[in-house]
Amino acid sequence: MPRKSFKRVLLKLSGESLAGDQGYGIDPSTINTIAAEIKEVVGDGVELALVIGGGNIFRGLAASSKGMDRASADYMGMLATVINSLAMQDALEKIGVSTRVQSAIAMQEVAEPYIRRKAVRHLEKGRVVIFGAGTGNPYFTTDTAASLRAMEINAQVILKGTKVDGVYTADPKKDPTATRYNELSYIEVLQKGLQVMDATATSLCMDNNLPIIVFDLTTPGNIKRVISGEAIGTIVQG
Ligand code: UDP
């Protein structure tokens, strides 16, 4: 089935996608490449909001498995997402893209507080809105934050940029017979335990009929392709 193009989208990037080949932290050339692609679509009139994970800096679950209090570790993870958001803001503004960072945890010297109506207004004015600090709650992920914010701002889709070109029947690195799904239903994702988003995020999208497209962020031009309706990656809907 042909896809439609989108006017308002929420782009979810994992923290790792900013790390480039080094696997941790922020790689300047990688973040600049992503920023340039975002500039192009915003220039075409697309309203784009961003949620960036924190896994390139800190993951709450990993730290709590080594003995740290889970809630404290999760707050550290949320702060890591703010670091990534500020880095992306800097990369975008340097090339002339107007942005706002809104944080789910109050830190007024650093970012605006999350205010839904303001976020929508920024988007209408052509600014990229970067949502930092996840949902503001421990025990959640930035995938869930992406789903929640996408719904709140009436985004038409969540675009999940990853290092693989969609969702596979098995891990293609381990199983050469693995094939890519073009389309999946939410229920299939949940029942098969496919690694699209975590179950909380997937069921939130299912309950509110918000499509998710998983696509390869590492191929240049893919952000524009997926927004313009080209059938790349895997779409999860219905
Ligand atoms: N986190 C959280 N609540 C949220 C979003 C994130 O507690 O609403 C914490 C959690 O510890 C998580 C970390 O922030 O491990 C980084 O986010 P995530 O793992 O989703 O990042 P990604 O895997 O996308 O880089």
Automatic annotation (TrEMBL):
GO BP field: 'de novo' CTP biosynthetic process; UDP biosynthetic process
Activity regulation description: Allosterically activated by GTP. Inhibited by UTP.
InterPro entries: AceGlu_kinase-like_sf, Asp/Glu/Uridylate_kinase, Uridylate_kinase, Uridylate_kinase_bac
Any one annotated GO CC term: cytosol
Catalysis performed (reactions): UMP + ATP = UDP + ADP
Keywords: Allosteric enzyme, ATP-binding, Cytoplasm, Kinase, Nucleotide-binding, Pyrimidine biosynthesis, Transferase
GO molecular function ontology, one term from the record: ATP binding
Transmembrane is among the record's keywords: no
Compartments reported by the entry: Cytoplasm
Protein family per UniProt: Belongs to the UMP kinase family.
Name of the protein: Uridylate kinase
Lineage: Bacteria, Pseudomonadati, Thermodesulfobacteriota, Desulfuromonadia, Geobacterales
Gene (UniProt): pyrH
